[in-house]
Amino acid sequence: MRLKDKVAIISAGASGMGRAGANLFAKEGAIVNVLDINQENGENVVNEIRENGGEANFFETDLTNLAAIKSTVDQIGSQYGRIDVLWNHVGIPGPSGIEEVEEEDFDLDDVKS
């Protein structure tokens, strides 16, 4: 229980490694806040955590929208009075390497599968 009662945010926590991380954090005692754009999968993760005795919440959040992220983080901070852990797991296709980018560079309208 290394994370007992720690308030954690997991971005892109509705699938893959984010989902696995959310479940692991909960197993270690964290209060897990899953942020993702996929509501159905996000709610499924929260239900898994709760079925296993953990505490979790889902926030449908467009992680390419800075205002949406700030709003969600403010909501979690207000609810719990703090945020102890952030696992910023989200990723989208974009520039490679380390460089300065603007918020507009993360506009998914221009991303092609």
Description:
The chain is α/β, with parallel strands linked by helices and 113 residues long. It has one domain (7-90, 100-110): NAD(P)-binding Rossmann-like Domain (Rossmann fold). It has helices at 16-27, 39-51, 66-80, and strands spanning 7-11, 31-36, 55-60, 85-88. A 4-stranded parallel beta sheet has the order 3-2-1-4, sandwiched between helices. The model has no long low-confidence stretch (mean pLDDT 89).
Question: How is the secondary structure organized here?
Answer:
Layout: E1 7-11, H1 16-27, E2 31-36, H2 39-51, E3 55-60, H3 66-80, E4 85-88
Parallel strand pairs: 1-2, 1-4, 2-3
Structure summarized in a few sentences:
The chain has about 110 residues and is an alpha/beta fold. It has 3 helices and 4 strands, in the order E-H-E-H-E-H-E. The chain has helices at about 15-25, 40-50, 65-80, and strands at about 5-10, 30-35, 55-60, 85-90.
